[in-house]
Amino acid sequence: MDTKNFKVNSENSLVEWIGRKVTGAHNGTIEVKEGNFNFENNILSSGKFVINIRSIKILDIDDSETNAQFANHLASDDFFNSDQFPDAVFEIKHAEPGENNFYHVTGDLTIKGITHSLETTLQIVKTDNVAVLDTKIVIDRTKFNIKFRSSNFFSNLGDTLIYNNFDLNVHLVADVQ
């Protein structure tokens, strides 16, 4: 059996996030801390990546004071509690190959110490030395005890409602080990 291991290059990898509310959306980036992918006979067999929750950046708010207030709020227990839970982890449990380098993946996502299984589709373009993974993961934040301004837990929020789902657009570049 031909096994190849790839290690994520944090410098060349990035996660972009989008959160939506009634009155619009916010977006930004999160640094990738580490990760790895394993291929058996050129087919993805396992993988894992870790993102640094403390590195969340907000790109759509230009005013530095407002941006800092929002960043501090995201770091608080209303959202990610990044002092206690500095990392979020996605671990691939099963990968089913499809057409054009796409895989249907089942994996475990851990945020705030809470783990839930989810399914997504990812694309991995691989050479002998580099594997590039791209995927969009849609996350229901309420499953991870992120309830702030959620209609599942609060009523009469009006235009202060924050939608439960947020997106992570993941771009990982990994080098063969």
> Strand order, biggest sheet?
1-4-5-7-8-9-10-11
Number of helices: 1
Shape: elongated
**Structure classification:** mainly beta
**CATH fold naming:** Lipocalin
Radius of gyration: 17 Å
Share of residues in strands = over 45%
Q: Under the CATH scheme, which architecture would be assigned?
A: Beta Barrel
**Could you state the order of secondary-structure elements as H and E?**
EEEEEEHEEEEE
Describe the largest sheet: 8 strands, antiparallel, barrel
Number of strands: 11
Global mean pLDDT: 91
- Looking at this structure, what is the CATH superfamily? Lipid/polyisoprenoid-binding, YceI-like
Helix share of residues? under 10%
Count of individual domains: 1
**CATH C-level category:** Mainly Beta
Distance between the termini: 17 Å
Ranges where pLDDT stays below 50 over 5 or more residues in a row are none
InterPro entries: Lipid/polyisoprenoid-bd_YceI, TTHA0802/YceI-like_sf
Pfam family, one: YceI
Protein name: Lipid-binding protein
